[in-house]
Amino acid sequence: MAHEMMVLALQLGVILLAAKLNGWFFSRKLKQPKVLGELVAGMVIGPFLLGSIPLGSLGPLFPVVEGTIPVSPELYGIATLGSILLLFTSGLETDLPTFIRFSGKASIVGIGGVIVSFLLGAGITVVFHPEVHTLMDPEALFLGTLCTATSIGITARILGETRKISTPEGVTILAAAVLDDVISIVLLSVVVGISVVSLNGGSIAWSGIGLVALKAVGFWAICMVIGIFTAPFLTKGLKRFQSLGLLAEISFGFALILAGLSEMAGLAMIIGAYITGLSFSQTDVASEITERVKGVAEYFVPVFFAVMGMMVDFKAIGPVLGFGMIFASLAFVGKLIGCGLPALFVGFNLHGAFRIGAGMLPRGEVTLIVAGIGLASGAIGPDMFGVAVLTMLLASVAAPPLLVFAFKGKSGYKKNIEAQEDADMVFIELDFPSERAAEYVRKSLAEAFHGEGFYIHAIEGSVRSWQIRKEDMVFVMKRMEAKLEISAKRQHESFVRLMMLETLADFQEFVEGLQSMQRPDLMGASLMINMFAQENSGKKNRTQ
Prior knowledge:
alpha+beta, Na+/H+ antiporter like fold, TATA-Binding Protein, 2 domains, 5-stranded antiparallel beta sheet, 69% helix, disordered C terminus
């Protein structure tokens, strides 16, 4: 065991160096997403290229492991932890009201993508494979199912990097991708049952297959409802520990437990992790949890994508390159049309529909799971497994830059959601004679809110902004040079104004106290204060 742990430490060190440096190179020099650089790094250092080179008595650092997954179970386990961290943070960054609002649209988009992708994948297999004659042939069923899966991990990483997770297109993509994975797993159980019967003879046990499918869908739906309703009460109880670090650690513990339970229910672990993050996203400590968990995710998430890249077997791709290219192209078309076309009928314009279709293109771990089960059951051979690998490779390389390109420009949703939200908002402004005065009041106001139990979180952007949050009360404070602005819902306007008046009263008392100082050694300071007071009297603080 000591030797195995030593090898694991060496492997993780090489993966982190390669993934981080290549991610930086792709991001800064090539202007491509980091995830693409991490995937390419895994392909280069993996067991099918440089990783197979012997290193003296140690042997190959990344030897090919027999089985579906060509890396060691220990390394794959750490990569799985990275995927759980990724989807947990993606759930935390998703705006739950927007997610719920677009869940119906996402269901239509996801189901459309599954149906079109399955028919195209199974149909092209019947047309081009001489031994496959009908859509019910096990090989056609498995390749059709393989087309339906979407890699939510790659999509979530790109949406997170570009800060598009909570846009209408972003939440629709994530909700549809989760649904796609659920449907893919359910479809896989049906296909496995049919394939076993077809290969061994006998009758199909539809009752057993239906029970597996019902269990998976039921678990997903029940966990979503329970998680969303219980998370606020759970965080309220955890606040009694008066430790945000402990709260973040316990919430991630719940994510790990629900991920494991998802696997037991027949779903992918990442679905349970995403549900947990989504449940905590509406709590007032969501930003605090995200900030702490992301520090850990920065180490483990690149390992996940590098390991995904390591699974690309270039030798398996060669013999099926022609058919694989056609199959992968149709797999792309299936998602672009199957998801993009329904999006046009549920409120998105052409630009938004293209974004959603592009966001559903990536293939990853679920594709390999489907292909591995098909290979293990004898439904598909090594050649068709190579087709699955090629499809995953092309999607992994092509989808990230395409998705980044697609999200350039204005919103792809026909309705102006920001205008609808602004109608229920009030904007309270204060003008100050200088930036220093505005910053002083801003800090005093933040301290006052913090004293009332609010959590303050800085928002990245061109304008300095802070989110102020406590349970269902959410405000945004901005400082634009010498102007201070707070936006709030109308029902919270009186509370915000009261907090601002109390802070301004304290500020005025502070200035008057300085003005009253008459010590000779402070005459210069007193003179400056009087000048400030005269300047301030010429300007009027206003609220709207």
